[in-house]
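Slide 14.
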Amino acid sequence: MCSRKSPSRSVSASGPASASDGNRENLTEGDESPGNSESGLSFHRLRPYQREIALAVLDSVFGRKGLTFSVEIARQGGKNELSAQLELLLLTLYMAEARNLVKCSPTFKPQTVISMMRLRDRLNDAGFAGIWTGELGYIIRLGNARAVFLSADESANVVGNTAHILLEIDESQDVSKEKYTKDFKPMGATTNVTTVHYGTTWDDTTLLEEVKQANIELENRDGVKRHFRYDWQEVAVHNPDYLAHVEGERERLGENHPLFLTQYCLLPIRGGGGFLSPQQRAQLSGDHTRKYSPERGRVYVAGIDLAGEAEEGEDALLRATRPRQDSTVVTIGELDFPAADDIQKQPRVRVVEHYWWTGRKHAELYPQLVDILKNVWRCRRVVVDATGIGQPVSSFLRQSLGSRVVPFTFTGQSKSRLGFDLLAAVNSGRLKMYAGDGSPEYQEFRQEMEMAKSHYRPNQTMNFYVDASRGHDDFLMSLALLVEAANGYTPRGARGRG
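Slide 15: predicted structure.
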């Protein structure tokens, strides 16, 4: 992998070795070539952009410079492999010394566990199987050197650990600034430790973005590169399979989808704003006519948003997650299935009918809902709001209609996923609303689409809603549940028509 000038011992893949700090000198790119006979280890797994980062980090570690780096690599572009290779090399070089490197992740399961598994695999690949040991369920030891893996969850007790060699913050955009400043940054204070923040961008309030902006300012002053950014196009230059993957994601999500912009283009979201842009609302508009009865041989699904009869008793957190509703809306969608060779694998959805009741008790709606879903439209899949008072309604429908009814409970996380999936359906052109017919349902639908707002949270989730002072979001939520129904339906030999 990397060689040192005048090494005290070689670093060999056949077994452990060590070197004192005085013999760890500057590394050059030529030292990284696969099969380097002096080092034994190699960076052959790493691509050029990964090696550029690795060299900068190692130069800071061996030179005791104590630099802080920010690394943005597009999703699935190799930041975890880079981290594991750095850990492998540093454990090997310091294995004769009682020193720690520390890595934290936003959660212990699965993120920290996955990082530990990757390092174990790399140690085994390098010939250290049977030599490295595990301790306490979160430490990997090679000789006297240890890699300590910790959770950055707000409740995790991590005080007392010291980072001598390296401090890594994985998915830094999801780590609390307060947690990092209070618990993790002090771990390297007495050792002037080199720190690396890895992640993908989200909004302009995250820890990663804060470190990035500070690094860019420092670079402008002294010319030392501290921020490394490689979007999906840079990664794709070195990996044709990755190019195909990202192009598929762009087709599925749409190039303006928040997840595509942040995870692949590495462009931060600037606060909240309108949920659907004028261009997206135009994409949502269809030219098919509204239907009042099903067409023979077609597949229909439904999304049901329920009036919140008991919302006065809900806690403040739930109300913030799910704004007040006072109408029940059923949205019926007709599905078209892609051909086998179509790049788009999910069905296209035409909204063909709306049912809208205001001020009706759920119990009064039971027989009408069952008749509409079962006898009129013969819906193959129905996703119904099962939050709070919706739970007994969903249970009743499931008893009457069977497994085709799927309850959906709104939480911050589940609603975020629902919103991202709705945006993906709109952006990709898979979701179309029936042509304007002047009906109250159509007018309310259009108004809610225009009034809908979005709010992006630091943990890469979002909320979408209509401000209660401006209206309601019954049609919006029903539409999102319709997309959920369509995405979860598996056709039995169904084919799209031309």
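Speaker note: Confidence is low (pLDDT under 50) at residues 1-41, 310-325, 494-498.
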